Each structure stands twice: as C-alpha cells, then as structure tokens.
Amino acid sequence: MSIINHIFAPIPSSHPLFYVAFFLTILVGLGILALLQILPNQARKPIIALVTFLGGLYYTAEFFIPVPTGHDGNFLSPYMDTMSNIASVLGCFSVGLGIISLIGLHFKNTIKLKASWGFSATLIVCFVVMTIFTLLDQYSPKGMLIPKVANKSVYQFLFSGGLTSLDAAMFALIGFFIISASYRAFRIRSLEASYLMASAVIVMLGQVTLGSALTHNIPHAYDFFKLENLSEYILAHINSPAQRAVTFGLALGALATSLRLWLSLERGLYFDQEA
Amino acid sequence: MQHASDNWNVANFVVILSVIILFKIVTAQKGMKTPFAACIGLFTVILLAFTVRAHWWGASIGILIASAFLLFKILTSRSDRIPTIRRIAGLNAIDEAVGRATEMGRPVLMIPGIGQLDIPALQGLNIFGYIARSVAAFGNRTILAVADPPLAGVGEEVIRDAYAAGGRPELFNPDDVRFISDRQFAFASGVAGLIEREKVAASFLMGAFFAESLIITEVAQRTGTIQIAATNQFTQLPFFVATCDYVLLGDEFYAASAYLSRNPTLLGSIVGQDYAKLLILVVIVLGVIATGYMELVHTGAIHDSSATDSLTKVADYFLKMFR
Amino acid sequence: MNSNTIWEKLQSIDTRILYVVTLIVIALPMLFPQIKLPIVPSQESIDCYQAVEEMGATHKLILINGAFSASSRGENGWQAQAIIEHLMKMHAPFAIMSIDPQNPQLMQDIVDKYAKKYDYVYGRDYVNLGFQVAFAQTVKGMVQDIKGTVKEDWKGTPLTNIPVLKNVKSIKDVSGIIDITPVASLDTWLGLATRVYDTPLVYVPTAVMAPEGYPYKDSKQIKGILMGVKGAGDYEYLMGVKEEGTQISTILSMVYGLIILLIIFGNIGYHGARISAQNAQKHGSE
After folding, report:
1. Are residues C103 and C61 in the same domain?
2. Among B109, B95, B188, B192, which Cα is nearest to B155's?
3. In B199-305, which residue ranges form alpha helices assigned H by DSSP?
4. C1 domain-assigned
5. Hey, is the C-beta of A47 within 8 angstroms of any chain B C-beta?
6. By percentage, how much of chain A surpasses pLDDT 70?
7. pLDDT (tens digit, 0 to 9) for every residue of chain C, 286 residues total?
8. Would you state the pLDDT for residue B1?
9. Counted domains in chain C
C-alpha cells in the first residue's frame, strides 16, 4: 500500500492510534481554518483556487493518463478509494450540519410559539423518537428486550409502516396533480398546440391497453396506424432526436460550467463588480 | 468508459470541445491570454513528448498545427467585442416576478433542486445570487429551501453576500436558508407546506428536479405564485411547462448566469458552447453521410472502384472512431 | 365575462370533483375485476422479454439493480415482480443490489413471494447484496471485482461464503444487468460498466423516465426497455401469467381515458367561450 493510502487508510476504533489520529485531525483542521481566517481575502483566493484545481486535477489526470496494457488503471487509480473516503467523510460532516440547522430552526419556532409551531414540534418529536428507536435497534446488546409493535421492532414499524407508506402516499399525489395540471394547462390556442395535443393523445393512448384495444382491428397492411405503433414512432423518431439535442446542449453547458468552476473562472454572484 | 484509453477518440473529442470553450472564455477577457497561452504551450510540449516517443508523427504534426493556430488566435484576438445573447423570456420575467412579490408583501422562494452539491445546483445558486440581489434592493424576503446539507452552507453564503451587495445586509435572516430533508418526498411535502404557510408570491426552481417537481409546482399554482423553472432533467420539463409561468429549456439554464450578468467571461463561455455544438453538428452530419454511404456499399447500390474504395475506407474509419 | 355559462363551467371544474372522479375511476376495476381490457405487448416489452430470456438461458449470474423505494413501488415493484418471476421460471441465478435504503427489503419481499413456488434458496440460487452507498464507485469497483467491492451481503455474510457467487469475479462473469429504476442510473451503468465487456443491459424505468432510454435503444447500447406499469402488464402477458401488473394496466388505461376526456371538456369550454364571445361582439356591433 502506498504512503498516501497508508496515511488516509481508515483506522478501526479499537486500534490504539485511533484517538491520536482523531484529535490530530481535528487540530490540523482547526489550524487550517484559523490560518484561512487570519489571511486577507486577496491571499485566500489563490489558496482556494489552488485547492480546487488540485482536487479536479486528480480526477482529470486519472481519467486521461494512459492505462498500461494488462493493468486495470494508471498510477493514480489506487488512490480513488482514498478520494471517495475523503468525500464521504465531508458528506457526513455536512449531514450533521444540516441536522443541527434543521433542529435549531424548529426548536426556536416551538419555544417561541411562532405561527405553525405545532408542525415544528411534531418534527422534533418524530426526530427524537426515530433516533432513539433506530439506536436501540442497531446497537442494543444481544438479549436486551426492545419494544415491539405487531411483532416488529418499533424502528421497523416506523420505517416500513410510517416512512415508506408516507413516501408512497406523496408519490400517489402526483397522479391527482397531473390530472388537475393537464386539465388546466392543455388548451389548443395555436397550431403548434394542436400538434402537441394530437401527439400527446396518441402517445398516451399508445402506452396503455386502451389504445391497443381501440385500434386492435385495423387490418395488418395498415399496422403502422395502430396507436401503439404510432406512439412508438413518435417516441423513437420525433421525441428522441429532440431529446438528444437538448441533452447535447445540457451536457455542453455542464462541461463549460465544470471547466469554469475547476479553473476558478466562475465569478461570484455580483459578476459586474468583480469584472 | 472508465479511462480515456478505453476510447481515445471520444476522450480527445471532449478535450477539443473543452479547448474551444476555454478559448472563447479566454479571448473574452484581457487578463487571461498570457496564462492560457502559457498553458497551451506547456500541454503542447507534454503531448508532443508522448506522441514523438510513440512515433505517432501524424498526431505530432496535428498537435503542432492546432497549438500554433490557437496561440495565434489568442494573441491576436480583441476582447472589446462583447457577444450578444438572444432574448430569453423566462429571465426577462425575473424582475417582474420579484417586483410583484414586493408589491404583495410576500416572500420569494428559491429551490436549487433536489440533487447534491453538483453542477446544476451550483448553477442554480449562481442565478439565485443575482435574483437575491434584486430582492434585497426591493427590501423583500428570500427563502432558500435546499435538500442537501452542504448546499445550505453554500446557499447561506450566497444569499448573505447578495443582500450585502444589494445594500440591505440587515434584512438577511439565516433562518430563511433551510435544509428541509434529503428524502425526495419529505422535501416535496416540506416545500409544499412552506409555500402554503408563507404565502410565497414568486418561486424560482432551478436545478436538478425529479418526481417531486409536480407536487411543488402544482401547490404553488394553487396559491397564485408566479413560477420560473429550469432543470437539466429532460423528463421533468413537461411538468414544468404545464404548471409554471416561464420555463428555461435545455441549456438556457446554463446560459442564464451569462444572460443576467453580461459578464464577458460567461458570455465567452456561451459562445464557446455554441461553437462546440457546431462541431458536434458537423460530426453528426458527417456521420449520417458516412452511415448512409456504407449502407449503399453494403447493399451493392454503389459498386467497388478505386474512387469508391478510398471513400469507403474514409467512411469506415470515421464511423469506427466514435464506437 | 359571464362565469355561469356552460362554457366557463366546462373550463373550471372544481379540482375536488376531479379528484373524487379519479378515485372512483381507479377504484372501479379493483372492486370489479371483470372490468378488463385486452393486452397487446409493445415491441419494447417484447425485446426486453427476449433479452432477459437470452440472459437466463446462459445460466450465468444476472445482476439486478433495484433503485426504487416505496414511493415508486407502484410502477417498479410490479416490473421487478414480473422479471424476478421470469428469472425463477428459467431457474436463472441472480444477485440483487440496491441504491436506495428501502430497496433491499422491497426486493426481498418480492423474491420471498415466489421463492417457495420455484424452490429458490438464498445463497444457492440468489443473493441480496443490499444497499450500496456510493453508486458510481460501487459500479466502477464491480467491473473488476464484485466480491472485493461489495464484500458482504445485506445480512453481513461475506460474499466469499455464498455459493451462487462462487464462479463470479467481475462484471465479465455476469450474463446481464437489469436496471429497475425511477432515477437516472442508466448513464452510470452505460458509462462505467457495460462497455468494458459488452454486458447486455435491460432498462426497466418508470414511465416518466422511459423516453431517456430510447436514444440508447436506438444505438443498441441497451437491449430492451420495459416501460412503467404497462410494461409490467405486457411482461406478465408474455409470461402467460396474470398478476397485479395486468390489473393495474386496466386501471391505468381508464385513468388515461379520464385525463383525455377532461382535456377535451376543457378545450370545448375554451373554444365555446371564445366563439360565444365573438358572436356576442358581432351582435353587439350590428
């Protein structure tokens, strides 16, 4: 294992060096933060630009440097796991920040009895209850009795019975909303709108058994005019090229934005001032 | 493809597109020419080292010609010509939406999508920074609802700086930048509740959206909110078109920051993208011609001869390049 | 403008009435199963079925990616059910991986439904690899080494101890990938996995995501697309069974018919009001 992988390899909590590494990491992190705070703005920008560039350079270089024959990757590929671990750790810290901000806001609303404080209180109660029963479910010692509901642990009951059911209910709302949105929005006000309506009706009917049933008896010689075939033609030969065109544009836009971010060419929000 | 070596032609094509975009960015601004020219020189030397070592003389000559051409164009270009972008209705309506919200005394809601801290979300935040500056200038309130915790941190910075730039730093409320949830439908229901309770007057949805988009936009429709949306998700565009007042289609989303700011760097980037699209179009047209030609050869409609033999080799090589 | 005319009323039916009517239309085929429409499978469904048949015929491991949660179970769940029953009928070994935390249990429930009927034993005939946190990184790793990347199944058993994975090292040893998804996971599979060893990929999305697959089907990068609930119904028809997918296809048809009817009403109201206003103006000016 190379030195870099060795330095950044995860250390199990049972290892004697774990706490040393833990506190050292926090100290180094705080030190870097303090240094960045002390530095003036003009000195901070090049450092941030350099770190951004190096971060992006790794992935670009790993992609472009040729892979020797018979190997799975080039000399940068073994560090991919390390980079992923770093990204995961950063993600975990940010989840913690998100939770703190969420709970803080709703706690304030509840304590100050602001408008709709009931919803905030509900969120806090649900959060606490779910946390307690998740921890009990995952970390309770073997043999310890954990509360059960309908032969499932409370965590399972809340997760499968509560969260998954609510998820499904919210998704089901889309069905109702699309009906009201279609009814309200689809008016034939122009020739283009009439093309849109006609193709929408053909594709909708062609996607379901109703369409197949309506045109089932069309003679074989005129198979093309069966709704399912017309629908497939519209999706494959009219929709797909348009979709590809939009995708090309979006991909190029993403490429340009990525390049600007990587090379720190992206200006801040008040562009004209900095320009 | 995991590495460029899986298909050098595709990888090199992306490099060419990137160089075109960067070239247009660089030539739009005075200060970037020298460093960019130096980078071109450095990369030319590195690439030549590879190609000469591998005895790829054709590639070496191609690299030399391309570098010389680029360097010439960089050093002789004028950066006082600012490109123009056609009118985009959705972006022109931003001021109208913000003004309407201010008149009604109701806040403005911004949602940078449900994705993580990635390109569409950052692009959304870029645009929101501009909009928040207008909102601040009008003395109104901005609510930013995010589905990814890191976005909350970045978003708070953006909105705070926008209010400072708009001359109203005291109006910024950190509690108005809210992490709702990273679960798709928990986020949708949270935002729907937010719209109903806060009686949002204008809503900007710019970023990566999925199935939850219809829930958010339909609820906003009911409360009479004016909505402007943009997304990189092709499949969500119909839902936005049905429920929102203005929709930015395709790469109008990525052009928005250039359109709003008229910054030369960003405008140059848009021009670069257009040239890159032109190149892709040329490749597609050539590909169609080559495919049609090969079909005619295989079906025997075109007979073998010395002239057609060369054409067949060229067409076949061209088609194999991008497989 | 008089808002009490029939034309205005047709244009502005209360949404609550629309929702109640929708509920009734959805409930009727469930309460009266005799209401059914004939199924005619689409070409995409037929291609998908044939691709899975070809994968199963090799008797090599098939990798199923489950990306759906309870929210999209209404579409992806029936598709997964149809495909898993098909694989079990062919006695093809498969491995389930999930990129949503809810998915491993949902997929396991589907497998458990048919396991006894087709004598499928966990470990011998199939394995549940569980939820994979970093999707792209996992796929990249699996291309070279599945057991080294995933390491354990969803219950913590080391993959080296699972018989069905005995001869499976990487994606090369997999006969095909079935991506059952409501999200944009197709690009990751195509970009990172299928090109390396030309592994066949079948795309099984929700109906909304299906158009994304057409360009790739056209360029033969995917072998088939099974679209939404209708695809599930088609698949069951091709298998010769009648499960929930078939029933829900009928419900879907009726709801689509309702939407089209409502759009027609809205347009009749709109154009009627417009013509009525024009006539009133003409008579007013005469």
Report:
1. yes
2. B109
3. 212-222, 237-243, 252-261, 264-298
4. no
5. no
6. 95
7. 456 788 888 888 999 999 999 999 999 988 988 887 888 888 889 999 999 999 999 999 999 999 998 888 889 999 999 999 999 999 999 999 999 988 999 999 999 999 999 999 999 999 999 999 888 888 988 988 899 888 899 999 999 999 999 999 999 999 999 999 998 889 899 988 888 888 999 999 998 888 888 888 888 899 999 999 889 999 999 999 888 888 888 899 999 999 999 999 999 999 999 998 888 888 876 5
8. 66
9. 2
Contacts with B237 from chain A: Cβ below 8 Å: 246
Q: Indicate if C164 and C95 belong to the same structural domain.
A: yes
Contact B44, A103 (CB under 8 A): no
Alpha-helical (H) ranges within chain A are 3-8, 18-38, 41-64, 80-111, 117-139, 154-156, 164-185, 191-206, 209-214, 227-233, 240-262, 271-274
C29 found inside a domain: yes
Question: What's the confidence (pLDDT) of residue C2?
Answer: 55
Distance CA A104, CA A106 (A): 6
Find out whether C148 and C38 touch, Cβ atoms under 8 Å. Answer: no
Residues C221, C114: one domain?
yes
Interface membership of A207 toward C (CB under 8 Å):
yes
Q: Is residue C51 part of a domain?
A: yes
Contacting residues for A273 by C-beta, under 8 A, at least 6 apart: B165
A186–chain C Cβ distance below 8 A for any pair: yes
Question: What is the CATH classification number for the domain harbouring C81?
Answer: 3.40.50
pLDDT of residue A270: 41
Q: Which amino acid is at B208?
A: A
* Residue C147 and residue C224 in one domain: yes
Please list every residue in chain B whose beta carbon sits closer than 8 Å to the beta carbon of residue C182.
Answer: 210-211
Proportion of chain B above pLDDT 70, given as a percent: 96
Domains of chain B, start order:
4-81+268-306 (no CATH), 89-261 (3.40.50)
Let me know if residue C116 belongs to a domain.
yes
Q: Best of A110, A171, A177 to disrupt the B interface by mutation (most B CBs within 10 Å)?
A: A177
Q: Are residues C104 and C27 located together in one domain of the fold?
A: no
B5 contacts chain C (CB < 8 A): no
Residue numbers of the domain that contains C107: 43-242
**Do C253 and C238 sit in the same domain of this protein?**
no
- Test the A interface: residue of C169, C256, C270, C271 with most A CBs within 10 Å: C256
Q: In this structure, how many other beta carbons lie within 10 angstroms of the beta carbon of residue A247?
A: 16
Residue A180 to residue C259, Cβ atoms within 8 A? no
Disruptive mutation site among A62, A85, A179 for chain C (greatest number of C CBs within 10 Å): A179
Neighbours of chain A (3+ CB pairs under 8 A): B, C
**CA end-to-end span of chain A, whole Å?**
47
Query: Does residue C15 sit in the same domain as residue C67?
Result: no
In tens, the pLDDT along A3-19 reads 776 777 777 778 888 88
Enter the ipTM.
0.84
Partners for B (CB, 8 Å, 3+ pairs)?
A, C
Domain finish residue from C227, C242, C257 = C242
| Assessment of whether the complete model's pTM goes beyond 0.80 | yes
Note whether C188 and C55 are same-domain residues: yes
CA distance A23 to B266: 43
